[in-house]
Amino acid sequence: MQFPVALSLLSTLASANAAETVLGAYIFHRHGDRTPKSLAPTNLTTLGYEQVYTSGQYYRSRYLTGSTKIKGINEDQVRLSQLSVTAPVDNVLQNSAQGFLQGLYPPVQTVQTLANGSKVTAPMDGYQLIPINTIQTGAGSEDSGWLQDASTCGNAKISSNAYFTSNEYTNLLNTTSNFYTSLIPVVNATISPKDTTYKNAYIIYDLINVAEIHNTSIPSSNLLTNTSLLTLRTLADAHEWNLAYNATDTIRAISGMQLAGEILTYLNTTIESGRKSASANKLAIQFGAYASFFSFFGLVHLPKANPRFMGVPDYASSMALELFTTVDTSSGFPERNEDLRIRFLFRNGTDMDSGALVAYPLFGGDSDAVSWDEFTDGLGKFAVTDSEQWCTKCGNTTGTCAQFVDAGNSGVTGGQQSGGDKGGISPAVGGVIGAFVTLAVVLGTLAAVMLLGGFRIVKKGSLGRQGVAEGGVKA
C-alpha cells in the first residue's frame, strides 16, 4: 500500500506544536518480511528482522528520545511497568516483536556488585530482557491463508463464508479466470492449477511477492509484467479487505473490535495511573496481522480519509494512537478529560520513501486529532472490552463462553461453537475468502492507483527452475 506525499499534507503540523505533550501511546504493528503462507510454517526472514528492528529505532527516536518523547518514560533502561508488549501465539509475530524491542531499547551494560564484593557484568553487552505477553487473538495467523481461521469467533466465520454465495464473488471469480490461468506456469510448483483462481488471490500474490523479493530466478518470469503484478496486488487487496470488513455486517471486523477495546482499556489505564502520579502505562506495543489493521480501518472510516487504507499494509507497517495535551503539565497530569486529545498516525512500512508517521482523521472527520471524549464515544460504539461481549457478539457457547450462557436461554445467536465448522470451506492452499467487490470496482481501483502514483513494483531478473531462497516459489 502506497501513500503519495501529497496526501500527507493534512498532517504536516501533527507534531509541530511545541506546546504539545505526549502522555502515552498505543502502537499496533505488522510483522516484517516473511516466507510465504503457502509454504508453511512461515518464518521471519533476515530482511524482516532488519525491518522491525529499524522500526523500533524509529519509535525510540519519537517516543523515548525525541521532541515528541512521552512524558516521564525511561529513555535508556527500560522500566517494565511503563511498557506493555503483546503478540499472538505465532512465531513470525512473536519474533517481530522481539526484534522491534531490540531497536526500541538497545543494550545497556550494567555491573552488579554482590555481597561478597564480586562483580557481575550483564551478558550480551547488557541486552534488555523485555517480556512479550501472548494473546490468542490472531494466533497462528501467519500460517493461515484464510485469516478467519485464526479466529474462533463463530459469527465472524459465518459472515465471511456467506460471501462465497454472493453474486459479487461469483462475478469476480469468473471474470478474472483467464488472468489467473495465465499465471499457472509461475506458481504450479506450489499451487495446483485448479486452485489458481481468485478464490486464492492473496495466497497467489503472496507467493509471487516473496519470490520477487528473494529469488534470483522465477519460473516463466516473462509473465510477471508491471501490469500483471499490479493487478495481482489490487485483486489481493480487494480480496483481503472484504475478508476483514463489511460495512453492513460488522461482526466480520471482530479483530478490529477487539483491538479497539484493547486500545481503550490501555489508554484509560494511562490516564488513571498518570493522575495518581504513577510512572506506569506509558507505551503499549501490539503485533498482529493485517486483518486487524483492515478491520480497525473500516470501523473508524479511514478509507474516507484515504482510499489506500483498503490496501494491505506493507511489511513492518504500523499505526499509533497518541494521547496528548496542549495544557501545561509542569504541575502534573491533566485532571480534566477535556484537556486530553487523541491523534491517529500511520506509517506504511519502513522504507525511507514511506517517511515518518502521518496523521489521518478518524470517524470520517476532517481534523487530525479528536478530544478524548470523542475518541471514547467513537470507539465505544463497537469496541469489545471483555469476554462476555465477545462471546455474545460471536455466538459462541462453549469453552470459556459457557459461563455466559443462561441455563434457559443461550442469549447468543449464530449457534456456531468455538473452533467449530468452517461452513464447509476447505483451507487447502490457504483457500481464502474473497472480496465483496465487482470487477468494475477492482478495475476502477486499479485505474485510480495508476493515476495517483500506484504501487512501486520492481521486477526481478529472469527465472530458471531454481528453488526458492527464503521459501519462495519453487520451480
TrEMBL record:
The chain crosses the membrane at residues 432-455. It comes from the Eukaryota. One of its GO terms (molecular function) is phosphatase activity. It holds the Pfam family His_Phos_2. InterPro entries: His_Pase_clade-2, His_PPase_superfam, Histidine_acid_phosphatase. Keywords: Membrane, Signal, Transmembrane, Transmembrane helix. CDD domains: HP_HAP_like. The keyword Membrane applies. Residues 1-18 form the signal peptide. Coiled coil: none annotated. Belongs to the histidine acid phosphatase family. This is Phosphoglycerate mutase-like protein. It comes from Massarina eburnea CBS 473.64. The lineage of its organism: Eukaryota, Fungi, Dikarya, Ascomycota, Pezizomycotina.
